[in-house]
Amino acid sequence: MRRLRTIIPLLLLMQCGFSVSASDFKGKEQIMSASGAFEIQLDPQGDDNIPAGRMIFSKKYTGGLVGSGAGQMLSKRTDGGIAVYMAIEEFKGSLDGQSGSFTLVHKGYMSGETQRLEINILQGSGKGELKKISGSMQIIQEKDQHNYVLTYKL
């Protein structure tokens, strides 16, 4: 699949009369993306003495990512409706047909006026064919469906 992403642009350029060789693309990292959906199961932990919530979660990914995610989340919601969460998630499976694993770091913030969610791949966390992965993820929630777009480099 990754090889096709390199060959198709070359063929298109050649059809337009440009002279292009594969060496023109050597050493240059391509930004790629994968999208799909995931199901999540949350398991709240009973930390009654701690003023923040803690959950263990598991995910099942389909689409460009095929596999599972597992992690822990810490969250806090104030009486005024401001909320924050942080999570660390370990993904294992395949990305566009390449097997391996990597770590996602989640940081979220929500108030009445603002909502931010940042999810990044932890640099150096890739294993297997995903060893050199870097990038970020967006989560799109529509009704009860969770979708993702992963933008990455290998």
TrEMBL record:
Residues 1-22 form the signal peptide. Keywords: Signal. Pfam families: DUF3224. It comes from the Bacteria. This is DUF3224 domain-containing protein.
